[in-house]
């Protein structure tokens, strides 16, 4: 198999993968049809680039384990997959193991349908039990979130951009991938208010009214950057080195993450936050101030209220208050 498998994502300019570098040895040994179906599985059936890369890592971990033991694809049985999952469970968290097993099952199902395998050796394998009632995403309280925003130097366009990026995640509960995919036209007026249009997972468009603070921060950034008329171009741009000048390039998820970490360190915030922190922070603050779980689910664009509940960290504050009642 030659050429390149090209994966396009709005939040990243383009990810190019050379199949020769990612094709496991066991797949190559199984012949051209196995190679074709392996590449086809990732290119054709998984549209989200984050899911694609996570599943690719998952199956390659299994195949590396297989190759270390000299197994061929046709020799793989449920006992082998079960042994791998047992070892993996000792090394990784239960959610990671369950995600990896799901990826492995899906790939083998595809190879069975494609007549590469006679049976799915992962179909009967059970993963570890896991049930979460509260997410593990680090959350900032109201004062910390304000401290972070207030600490940003907004005398230059980069500071205005960074403040707008963080505010958008806080006030709309936006995922970083949806934020990075935004163009200037995705901040738009409707009636007497401004709205933001988010390009969410699965190709879904999600529209959220802009909080008045978010309007203020986005307007200041767009004014300084002179981007109002560049409707079809990226909203959040990368900088040219340390010049504090924006280029035409789109910020990636990684760019946003590194910016968040820099800004948190500069603000003296010791919590190990990431981009998802602001989704959990916004949802928790909304609920503390009288918002309903149903509406939080709608703003966050969650399929299930159970998912939204994982971001509700109001009980964290209750637990801290209660533990201080111990006066020993």
Automatic annotation (TrEMBL):
Core-binding (CB) domain sequence ranges: 32-112
Key words of the record: DNA integration, DNA recombination, DNA-binding
Domain of life of the source: Bacteria
Keyword Protein biosynthesis in record: no
Domain Tyr recombinase: 135-325
Pfam family, one: Phage_int_SAM_1
GO molecular function ontology, one term from the record: DNA binding
InterPro entries xrefs: CB, DNA_brk_join_enz, Integrase-like_cat_sf, Integrase_catalytic, Integrase_recombinase_N, Integrase_SAM-like_N, Tyrosine_recombinase_XerCD
Gene3D superfamilies with a match to the protein in the record: 1.10.150.130, Intergrase catalytic core
GO biological process, one term: DNA integration
Similarity comment text for this entry: Belongs to the 'phage' integrase family.
Record-given protein name: Site-specific recombinase XerC
Natural source organism: Frigoriglobus tundricola
């Amino acid at each position: 198999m030659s050429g390149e498998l090209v994966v396009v994502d709005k939040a990243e300019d383009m990810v190019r993968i050379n199949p020769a570098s990612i094709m496991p040895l066991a797949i190559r040994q199984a012949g051209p049809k196995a190679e074709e179906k392996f590449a086809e599985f990732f290119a054709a059936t998984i549209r989200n680039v984050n899911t694609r890369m996570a599943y690719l890592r998952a199956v390659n971990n299994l195949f590396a384990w297989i190759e270390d033991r000299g197994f061929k694809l046709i020799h793989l049985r449920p006992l082998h997959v079960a042994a791998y999952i047992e070892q993996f469970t000792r090394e990784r968290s239960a959610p990671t193991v369950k995600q990896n097993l799901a990826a492995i099952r899906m790939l083998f199902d595809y190879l069975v349908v494609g007549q590469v395998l006679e049976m799915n050796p992962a179909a009967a394998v059970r993963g570890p039990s896991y049930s979460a009632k509260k997410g593990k995403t680090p959350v900032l309280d109201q004062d910390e979130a304000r401290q972070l925003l207030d600490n940003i130097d907004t005398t230059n366009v980069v500071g205005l951009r960074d403040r707008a990026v963080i505010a958008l995640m806080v006030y709309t509960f936006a995922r970083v991938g949806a934020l990075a995919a935004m163009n200037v036209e995705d901040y738009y007026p409707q009636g007497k208010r401004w709205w933001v249009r988010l390009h969410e997972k699965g190709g879904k468009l999600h529209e959220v009214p802009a909080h008045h603070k978010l309007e203020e921060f986005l307007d200041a950034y767009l004014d300084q950057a002179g981007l109002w008329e560049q409707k079809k171009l990226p909203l959040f741009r990368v900088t040219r080195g340390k010049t504090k000048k924006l280029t035409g390039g789109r910020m990636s998820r990684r760019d946003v993450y590194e910016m968040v970490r820099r800004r948190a360190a500069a603000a003296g915030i010791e919590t190990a936050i990431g981009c998802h922190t602001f989704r959990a922070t916004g949802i928790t603050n909304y609920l503390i101030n009288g918002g309903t779980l149903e509406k939080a689910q709608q703003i966050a664009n969650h399929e299930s209220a159970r998912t939204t509940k994982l971001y509700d960290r109001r009980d964290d504050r209750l637990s801290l208050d209660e533990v201080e009642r111990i006066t020993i």
